[in-house]
Amino acid sequence: MKKKDSHLEKEEILExxxxxxxxxxxxxxxxxxxxxxxxxxxxxxxxISLLKQEKEALNDKYLRLYSEFDNFRKRTQxxxxxxxxxxxxxxxxxxxxxxxxxxxxxxxxxxTENIKDVKKGFTLILQKIQNSLTQKxxxxxxxxxxxxxxxxxxxxxxxxxxxxxxLKGKIIEEVEKGYLLxxxxxxxxxxxxxx
Length: 195
Description:
This protein is α+β, with helices and mostly antiparallel strands. Helix content is 61%, strand content 15%.
């Protein structure tokens, strides 16, 4: 009977060992499964650190935007300055031939005795300069003599007694011609008004 008991004891010991092995294997399997599964509670970051990160990102974005705007502003100022420097260049270039004509006319005055030819030459030069200015959008304001005074295009420099009742309150004389540049008054017509 002793042999049977010892044999039974051995079997029990073996079974206990197998059970422990199985339990250890099950525990390892469960541990691996738990590692593979995402934890139910996500790791929470500190809200203050999140706000700091967001603040830094926004500050960086602001600084980049500010520097882009500053570069744009500087570039625009430089372009404006260059434009102002060369704005009248094309007008000046169109007037230079007229100046040449005037210089030639002044030289020829001494050599010419015929005043009509001199007058004709100066008339041609005047027409040439008027054509150059017209091409640039400049035109003269129509003579206002005998018309009502218009504050938008006229500048009264004096009042004189009207020669007739019809001219009372109207323009009697044009002292200086007015000009428009692309329909904007660049020089008002200076006039004398009858009272």
